[in-house]
Amino acid sequence: MKTLPALLLAASLYAQSGQNVAGTEVHVLPVQGNVFMLLGAGGNTTLQAGKDGALVVDTQFAELAPKIVAEIRKLTERPIIWMVNTHVHPDHTGGNEALSKPYGPGPGQTPRIIAHENVLNRMTQTGPNQPEIPAGMWPNDEYGTAQKDIFFNGEAVVIYHMPRAHTDGDSIVFFRKSDVVSTGDIFTPGTWPVIDLARGGSVQGTIDALNAILKLTVPARYQDGGTLVIPGHGRLCDESDVVEYRDMLTIVRDRVQDLIRKGMTLEQVKEARPARDYETEYTGVPGRWTRDQFIEAVFKSLSEARK
Q1: Of the chain's two ends, which shows fewer C-beta atoms within 10 Å, N or C?
Q2: Is residue 109 a part of any domain in this protein?
Q3: pLDDT tens digits, one per residue of 130-183
Q4: Does some domain include residue 89?
Q5: Domain of 125?
Q6: Which pLDDT belongs to residue 20?
Q7: Is residue 29 part of a domain?
């Protein structure tokens, strides 16, 4: 499996919009076919480039737009025609408007921004003490069905909704000819799964989504290579990486479920360390997401499902 230099892996995970990213570099990794992976300060960006223009999955932060476009221009001079947001979090949607206005199809035109309708709902219905999200960042081509597909740069691009996974608005994107899947934050190798309960996420929905990804992936020889997987954060992966992540989450879910059936409280479950044998492989996101927060999200998700 391909590895990335430590510099690329050190990109800040799940960073908040508005942070100082002036010194951040954007790096491009060729994946396969027409697809590339861009690493910066936010979530990974997937780029498909060809004669029809550019399609971008997840836009990181507005402050990084010039650097992202500079890297895109090394691969194609054609405009950005399509964008896809895999979910609502600002490290994946923050560059929507910044990439649309100067780099779109032409004067007075902007790219079509595809996302599930729940992403638009959450952007337009912010709660108390939450900043309003400018209309220029909103998806303008939302979908409410199980999937949406387009044909671009000579290949089918299929966008699947993953209900109640990382959030309730998650999409994965399958580039059928290039044989690449872009997963958003449903899959983040090396870090504990982030289950955003406040935005409709659930542990079972995340496992279901990982299984849906595995239905699309086909490994090559010795289970490596074949279909490649671009995660929401972290290194380029293949099917075996997704299997390992899915199995970890399934085992932790089953352990927590068993402890709940035994009548344990949340604090007792945390003390039991149901993810203890994975603690050397998976880490939290400093200041944002810890092992205990992950266990708490699993506990609350399962407890809610029992009601």
Answers
A1: C
A2: yes
A3: 788 999 999 999 999 999 999 999 999 999 999 999 999 999 999 999 999 999
A4: yes
A5: 6-240
A6: 61
A7: yes
